[in-house]
């Protein structure tokens, strides 16, 4: 009997041993996890936080915020503690994306913002600043409560000392909105010093790290926040640069918070030097943050983030971990205009004979005229996908990679080295997306409309001006969440100071270009206008710009025909006339030749030819840069490959030869500046060489003063009247990289020293 029972047991064991063992193992794991979770929450809640060196009691600090006006009752810290994740009967999975209470099946819209100020402080500096921030937020809340109705607004802020809170209450989960106001969303404002010794900040950072990496907790458990922003205090006297540790812990907290919130960085990381500018920097950061809080209330959230802000270069360091990964991520999101099918494109090229040039306005203003880029056209879709904002029916704006780079403290384009333009203050726009050339290296090729005369509906300059500014600011705002964006540069970028009219198409094609320029200048926005030397009538009629460019893509007729593939039959004559006009304008305008070198097309044996052109037009400046490889099928179809992109050494050799030829002819030019980073060199007329120093930069305020005076009493002025000394680091032979910027080296392998950017600088 016993034997039979044993046999049955053995049979049962053989049949069920696997599921039984699995079940036992699962039970064991669950028990371990439960124990661990319990002990961890206890530790954090009670004692893992070292006692603050200061005497103030926690209760006192937490209650510092006296509500200016009670709009709704925000949850207290105690409530929050209750609401925070507490294990009940087993391991709890904390989900950031847990659906909020819904109204009629929909998530309630953001009605109130509850700012929570967190700070850590060992020697009270940060605490003092945290109270200044608190006061500012309180004042803003009160002011908005006066202005807004009582259904929406900013609530009086609360303040918490990181040394005394239970991290789980705020940094494992997000406090729940009060049941009376489900539309309340929290914004964390974190103020922190940096210590390179063990402090509460290490415990805090460990908590953020563990929370992100804890498999029981969603990787972004704080994603229900409306946003967060961090401001760091450090000491530049001892830690002068970020590489040496300035504000390093603020940077770390910012990065962890980006991960935990699912990239809800409401405003860029701010940093202040306690021995210098801390208070001013904090005030600027606060005012920028308040603008964003208003945006959140208005738009119901942070709105669009980085995607779509133009260049795909900007993926997220928080995820990618390093620059190279970023590139790869971005590469997959890049859309080549050439890959977008042009099926039924109503704006497909219809060349029109040049003879109507100059009479364009009357034709185009007819109501019946078609739109250049209708919203429904594939051109529109292709351009917007590439990050362009189309304004009206024929204008566009886009932020360039250098603007983004400058926002991140990583250096401006060559125009900073040569002319003092800070890229984050520069808007790249065009009032005409149409062009009369089909240059082989044009990266927008295949989508932009072409034509030799204006044959479209004409938008008013007011509409374009307002539209491009709005589009630009919108794109800048989209950058606020990008890792590394500097709060102070972000704030500066909200006032456009320069406009590069060179994006796509031909700006002087636009019939009201002069009125558009007036508008730029009236707001003290400088104008750098690039034209393709195909519209002499318009060039002649053009009013003053801050700097006038003509693209010189080849030195002789045959080469120009091959490279620019102009639509005008008399392209060479037009080109020559433009040079004559430039020569006349050189006394009142800063005139520039822009040479784009394409190896195998317009470099070899062309030094003499280019020198002839310089001799003819006598431009103030000659910019020489290598072609930017854009890899479109159009350029490939024209036989352009990476092999055609010259190395910087080849550009330098060409430039030296050209300079020598100009000298041989007795023309007074010299090698003035370089920006090796973008393979660009500047030859300048000696008109800009004063007292042994180059003066290729521009005194912009002086330009506007002179312009206004000219308008008032007709006093004319010359380029020499608003020139400014070139920085020595920009001189030829010095490299041209601003020492104040952070240098980011790229691994570009064998193509090092070639211009590889997807979108070239303008
Ligand atoms: C021991 C010590 C280490 C510090 N380490 C750094 C550092 O690594 N980086 C930095 O930018 N500042 C550093 N600082 C400067 C502090 O961050 C700065 O003085 C801050 O304002 C202190 O804020 P608190 O008074 O709120 O504690 C350090 C200061 C001390 C005393
Ligand atoms: S590349 Fe052009 S648009 Fe960009 S910052 Fe420089 S000048 Fe401005």
TrEMBL record:
<keyword id="KW-0812">Transmembrane</keyword>
<keyword id="KW-0819">tRNA processing</keyword>
<dbReference type="GO" id="GO:0102521">
    <property type="term" value="F:tRNA-4-demethylwyosine synthase activity"/>
</dbReference>
<dbReference type="GO" id="GO:0031591">
    <property type="term" value="P:wybutosine biosynthetic process"/>
</dbReference>
<dbReference type="GO" id="GO:0046872">
    <property type="term" value="F:metal ion binding"/>
</dbReference>
<keyword id="KW-1133">Transmembrane helix</keyword>
<dbReference type="GO" id="GO:0051539">
    <property type="term" value="F:4 iron, 4 sulfur cluster binding"/>
</dbReference>
<feature type="transmembrane region" description="Helical">
    <location>
        <begin position="15"/>
        <end position="34"/>
    </location>
</feature>
<dbReference type="Pfam" id="PF00258">
    <property type="entry name" value="Flavodoxin_1"/>
</dbReference>
<keyword id="KW-0408">Iron</keyword>
<dbReference type="GO" id="GO:0010181">
    <property type="term" value="F:FMN binding"/>
</dbReference>
<feature type="compositionally biased region" description="Acidic residues">
    <location>
        <begin position="313"/>
        <end position="326"/>
    </location>
</feature>
<feature type="domain" description="Flavodoxin-like">
    <location>
        <begin position="115"/>
        <end position="290"/>
    </location>
</feature>
<keyword id="KW-0949">S-adenosyl-L-methionine</keyword>
<keyword id="KW-0411">Iron-sulfur</keyword>
<dbReference type="InterPro" id="IPR007197">
    <property type="entry name" value="rSAM"/>
</dbReference>
<keyword id="KW-0479">Metal-binding</keyword>
<dbReference type="InterPro" id="IPR013917">
    <property type="entry name" value="tRNA_wybutosine-synth"/>
</dbReference>
<dbReference type="Pfam" id="PF08608">
    <property type="entry name" value="Wyosine_form"/>
</dbReference>
<comment type="pathway">
    <text>tRNA modification; wybutosine-tRNA(Phe) biosynthesis.</text>
</comment>
<feature type="region of interest" description="Disordered">
    <location>
        <begin position="301"/>
        <end position="333"/>
    </location>
</feature>
<dbReference type="InterPro" id="IPR029039">
    <property type="entry name" value="Flavoprotein-like_sf"/>
</dbReference>
<keyword id="KW-0004">4Fe-4S</keyword>
<dbReference type="InterPro" id="IPR034556">
    <property type="entry name" value="tRNA_wybutosine-synthase"/>
</dbReference>
<dbReference type="InterPro" id="IPR008254">
    <property type="entry name" value="Flavodoxin/NO_synth"/>
</dbReference>
<feature type="region of interest" description="Disordered">
    <location>
        <begin position="75"/>
        <end position="100"/>
    </location>
</feature>
<dbReference type="InterPro" id="IPR013785">
    <property type="entry name" value="Aldolase_TIM"/>
</dbReference>
<dbReference type="InterPro" id="IPR058240">
    <property type="entry name" value="rSAM_sf"/>
</dbReference>
<protein>
    <recommendedName>
        <fullName>S-adenosyl-L-methionine-dependent tRNA 4-demethylwyosine synthase</fullName>
        <ecNumber>4.1.3.44</ecNumber>
    </recommendedName>
</protein>
<keyword id="KW-0456">Lyase</keyword>
<keyword id="KW-0547">Nucleotide-binding</keyword>
<comment type="similarity">
    <text>Belongs to the TYW1 family.</text>
</comment>
<dbReference type="Pfam" id="PF04055">
    <property type="entry name" value="Radical_SAM"/>
</dbReference>
<feature type="domain" description="Radical SAM core">
    <location>
        <begin position="419"/>
        <end position="668"/>
    </location>
</feature>
<keyword id="KW-0472">Membrane</keyword>
